[in-house]
């Protein structure tokens, strides 16, 4: 018996019944054309509530930084959730020329970009050798590489300061790029090695059977397939280098060479003992927003790169 037959039977019984009552719709008895949705339980609501709390906890500092940057200097200690009135006074002071913040942003871009390029170049070849070649102590070498990134930056400041003083590298870009590479290269090697191990060897063998050399197979076959992992590593390396502070603060005294993070820490108020909170908040927003936009735009590639080596 079909749904149409049940509907006709219900209609007929409603029209000819002695009591004159119409039978309820048969579709309600059989559940309707679609599967009914399961009622939400307290567990599902608790999950959404937990996610909302985590989301609010993570974004609350950035929200307050943004709100504070839009307050006037006289209203900087207000506790209202929205600035009243809105003011771009702090952003105008950041770029008025006295802080050299525009040059500091350019310096950060140079240091982070150069570090990312060199880390990827060295990391790709090191990851290929570790994942594709067979040699003794391969696992030990990989462990040593990742162990070097576990040293805190403050532990190497004094030796590097002495070394760079002897080399004449103080107040130079390489004084910031070289130490950043010591932390960026292990990150690149570890990520790319995990990713390349998941790529099948048959692709390279097929390319070499077709006439490619090992270098051509690497460049034309393996490297394009490893693009998601390379892209993810580039973003993570760039963010790490962009946010670096302790090395740049220790090696650079010239305001023309200092990075944005150091420039923010050296902002001064109208008097010696006044802290320019509004300007620091505005500069913090300017430094953070490009990274947030970049992650939001490329979040799919980042997730693909981080999860690509999880399974074969």
Report what the structure shows.
The protein has 312 residues and is mostly helical. The protein has helices at 3-16, 26-30, 42-69, 89-94, 101-132, 138-148, 157-167, 174-197, 202-209, 214-225, 227-242, 246-251, 260-265, 277-297, 299-307. The radius of gyration is 30 Å and the shape is globular.
Mean pLDDT: 81
Number of strands: 0
Shape: globular
Quaternary organization: single chain
> What summary fits the major beta sheet?
none
Low-pLDDT residue intervals, each spanning 5 or more residues: 13-32
Amino- and carboxy-terminal Cα gap: 49 Å
Question: What is the share of helical residues?
Answer: 55-70%
Briefly characterize the structure.
67% of the residues lie in helices and 0% in strands. The chain is mainly α and 312 residues long.
Record the SSE blueprint:
Layout: H1 3-16, H2 26-30, H3 42-69, H4 89-94, H5 101-132, H6 138-148, H7 157-167, H8 174-197, H9 202-209, H10 214-225, H11 227-242, H12 246-251, H13 260-265, H14 277-297, H15 299-307
Helix pairs in contact: 3-14, 5-8, 5-11, 6-8, 8-11, 9-10, 11-15
Keywords:
312 residues; mainly alpha; 67% helix; 0% strand
